[in-house]
């Protein structure tokens, strides 16, 4: 029987994961803080097979906990959980060997999907995490550009959107946002150009 450690300061998350994992035949241990998790890991030594780790916790962050886990010699897969995603968190956790990313709120089906990813080949796992990190970064930058647009910081919004466009030219929302930015910058020809591209995406159902 595989043993799982769930580390999260939110009781409902611990209960949800415990129920999901026990139904799948896992033995589940839970911790409501980083300190409590480290105490459990000291007792369990190397018998933990997988860890679900919340990034944002009081006193000790998930990133700090993950670093300690690795320093203790635990090489088991760690699934990062967060409702407050940032590019820095994704990068830091990737460097520390996180295996997957679980965005809150999540469903039992998503937990199942992540577990399946974990137990695929290392090559596929690495690819999956890299792709999810890129998607996360794109979402954050788009959200940032929308906020800048609302605040009237049109040049900053434009520069942010160009970064996203350079990495993913297939997201039609980017063209719509760039069109809006250009309208506010009185660049009406460019606004029309990007709006036309946006309409082409809609016409082709991409």
From TrEMBL:
Alphabetical keyword list: Kinase, Phosphoprotein, Transferase
InterPro entries recorded: Bact_response_regulator, CheY-like_superfamily, Sig_transdc_resp-reg_receiver, TPR-like_helical_dom_sf
Pfam families: Response_reg
One function term, GO molecular function aspect: kinase activity
Modified residues (4-aspartylphosphate): 54
Gene3D superfamilies: 3.40.50.2300, Tetratricopeptide repeat domain
Entry annotated with the keyword Transferase: yes
Domain Response regulatory, residue spans: 3-119
BP terms from Gene Ontology: phosphorelay signal transduction system
Coiled-coil stretches noted in the UniProt entry, renumbered to this chain: none
PROSITE patterns for this protein: RESPONSE_REGULATORY
PANTHER family: RESPONSE REGULATORY DOMAIN-CONTAINING PROTEIN (PTHR44591:SF3), STRESS RESPONSE REGULATOR PROTEIN 1 (PTHR44591)
Its job: May play the central regulatory role in sporulation. It may be an element of the effector pathway responsible for the activation of sporulation genes in response to nutritional stress. Spo0A may act in concert with spo0H (a sigma factor) to control the expression of some genes that are critical to the sporulation process.
Protein name: Stage 0 sporulation protein A homolog
Species annotation: Clostridium estertheticum subsp. estertheticum
């Amino acid at each position: 029987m595989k043993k799982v450690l769930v580390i999260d300061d939110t009781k409902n998350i611990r209960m949800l994961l415990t129920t999901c994992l026990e139904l799948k035949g896992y033995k589940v241990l839970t911790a409501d803080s980083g300190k409590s998790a480290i105490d459990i890991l000291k007792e369990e030594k190397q018998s933990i097979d997988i860890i679900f780790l919340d990034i944002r916790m009081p006193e000790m962050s998930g990133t700090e906990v993950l670093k300690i886990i690795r320093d203790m010699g635990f090489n088991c897969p760690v699934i990062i959980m967060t409702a407050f995603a940032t590019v820095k968190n994704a990068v830091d956790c990737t460097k520390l060997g996180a295996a997957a990313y679980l965005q809150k709120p999540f469903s039992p089906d998503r937990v199942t999907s992540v577990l399946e990813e974990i137990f695929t080949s290392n090559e596929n796992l690495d690819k999956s995490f890299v792709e999810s990190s890129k998607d996360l970064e794109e979402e954050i930058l788009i959200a940032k550009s929308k906020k800048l647009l609302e605040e009237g910081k049109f040049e900053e919004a434009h520069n942010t959107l160009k970064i996203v466009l350079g990495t993913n030219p297939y997201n039609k929302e980017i063209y719509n946002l760039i069109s809006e930015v250009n309208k506010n910058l009185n660049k009406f020809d460019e606004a029309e150009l990007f709006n036309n591209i946006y309409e082409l995406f809609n016409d082709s159902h991409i």
